[in-house]
């Protein structure tokens, strides 16, 4: 298979990256607007400033801002490097040589923001996993370790590139050990988290089979997670394969990587928020927190049993008192049924 030139690869990257950045920007803006709208509806149509301030009490809002900043900066550096290659450096006469220089400051900084986007995206899906599993710390032990591994490699690769020898390329062993590790760590994080989130929602769906409409919404949320995560996972596999095959298309794959992560994350926000907005009057599936969702179905606040890590709902219990009548052991006088409404069992 003939090798694709670096200039052609990077020119194609600029076009595709700009298109995906536009999609990411629209999804981010839509996510913020829909989230503010949800806050207003859930809290009695409070004012816009109050709804906006309330968002900053949620860690997911900070993650959205950080991801938007890192992805936007990555795109800005891509455009800046395009001008460097064809205008600023040697009057654009050595674009091929410029794109092949792995020690360029702009490339090192761009790589750092690339991995900042991946680390933020992986941290957010782990946070969602923790929320969906009712704050169970044991469930997130594995993905936390893979996230730490991704962070170490995400720091190591830019440092390695800054000290690269001019005669080495991106496929040299010094860079390959970092890149392949990055792919493996982020694949493990996303596959594990997606499977565990889907499994938790499937389990809760079995409990809510009697609530047919709510059950359908639970399954639709599981579909949203799986479909959105599949975008990021598929692109990570593409980066992995193109790098191992030694193709310059890996530059395309790496540059598109943060947009695949960002779009995957924002798609979940927007699709869930759109579903919530369309059915908010019927109090259906309203949030990514499964416990909050089950509470939304009934219009009540969830009560957590922190020992069992399972959202406990108020239960109606019928107790029948039976009294044995003196002289007739086969006759029982049933007392009045009592109904007790209880929450978390003692």
From TrEMBL:
Keywords: Membrane, Transmembrane, Transmembrane helix. It comes from Collybiopsis confluens. It comes from the Eukaryota. The chain crosses the membrane at residues 12-37, 65-87, 107-127, 139-159, 179-199, 219-244, 256-274. Residues 328-339 have a biased composition (Basic and acidic residues). Residues 325-346 are annotated as: Disordered. This is Uncharacterized protein.
């Amino acid at each position: 298979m003939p090798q694709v030139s670096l200039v052609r690869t990077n020119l194609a990257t600029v076009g595709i990256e700009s298109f995906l950045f536009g999609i990411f920007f629209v999804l981010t803006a839509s996510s913020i607007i829909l989230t503010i709208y949800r806050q207003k509806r859930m809290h009695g149509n409070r004012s816009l400033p109050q709804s906006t301030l309330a968002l900053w009490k949620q860690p997911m809002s900070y993650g959205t801002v950080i991801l938007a900043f890192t992805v936007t900066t990555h795109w800005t550096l891509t455009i800046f490097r395009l001008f460097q290659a064809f205008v600023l450096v040697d009057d654009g006469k050595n674009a091929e040589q410029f794109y092949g220089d792995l020690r360029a400051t702009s490339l090192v900084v761009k790589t750092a923001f690339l991995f900042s986007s991946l680390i933020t995206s992986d941290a957010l899906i782990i946070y969602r996993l923790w929320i969906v599993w009712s704050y169970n710390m044991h469930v997130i032990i594995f993905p936390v370790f893979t996230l730490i591994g991704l962070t170490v490699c995400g720091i190591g690769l830019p440092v390695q590139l800054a000290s690269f020898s001019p005669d080495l390329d991106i496929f040299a062993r010094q860079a390959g050990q970092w890149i392949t590790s990055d792919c493996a760590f982020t694949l493990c994080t996303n596959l594990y988290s997606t499977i565990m989130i889907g499994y938790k929602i499937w389990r809760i769906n079995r409990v809510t089979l009697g609530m047919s409409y709510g059950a359908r919404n639970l399954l639709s949320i599981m579909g949203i997670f799986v479909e959105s995560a599949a975008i990021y996972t598929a692109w990570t596999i593409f980066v992995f394969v193109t790098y191992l095959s030694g193709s310059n298309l890996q530059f395309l794959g790496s540059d598109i990587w943060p947009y695949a992560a960002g779009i995957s994350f924002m798609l979940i926000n927007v699709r869930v928020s759109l579903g919530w907005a369309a059915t908010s009057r019927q109090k259906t599936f309203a949030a990514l927190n499964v416990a909050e969702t089950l509470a939304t179905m009934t219009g009540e606040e969830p009560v957590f049993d922190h020992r069992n890590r399972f959202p406990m709902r108020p239960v109606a219990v019928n107790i029948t008192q039976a009294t044995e009548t003196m002289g007739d052991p086969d006759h029982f006088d049933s007392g009045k049924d009592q109904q007790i409404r209880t929450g978390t069992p003692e």
